[in-house]
Amino acid sequence: MAKAARAIIIESGRILVMHRSKLGSEYFTLVGGRLNGNETPEQALIREVKEETGLDVTSHRLVYTEVHPAPYSDQYIFLCEVAPHADVAIQATSEEGFMNKISINVHKPLWAEVSSFARLPFRTIQLQNAITTALKKGFPNEPIRL
Hints:
alpha+beta, 8 strands
C-alpha cells in the first residue's frame, strides 16, 4: 500500500493549499505527496513541501492519519511550521513542475483565508472537516485516525 505525507501550514490567518486540475476535475488538497523508497513520512513531508512550495519545514507534528483503499495512498497529515520565506511556487525540477510544464495534472500552491477553507472544493471531506474543526478548537495533541 502506498503512503503519502501532507502538510497543514497556517500563517497570518491563511492556510496553504494545493489547487489541482487533473483530468478535467478541479479541486484542492494539502501540499504533499507519496513516500519514495525507504523514506519515512517525515522525510517525505520535508521533501514534498520543498518541491511543491520552495518552503523549508522547521517543525512538524503528526495530527491525523487517513487510511484509504487501493489504489489511493494512506495519508500522514502533519501540522507544520516553516522558515521565513517569500512567495510559494512549484519547483521547476520537481515532478509537479514537469507535469505543469506539459499541462498534465496541473498543481498550483496558494494561500487560502482560514475563514473560507470550509467552502473550498476539497478532495477529502473528512480531512477538510477535521481541519475546519481544529482551526476553531485547536489541533489534537495525539494523532487522530480519520
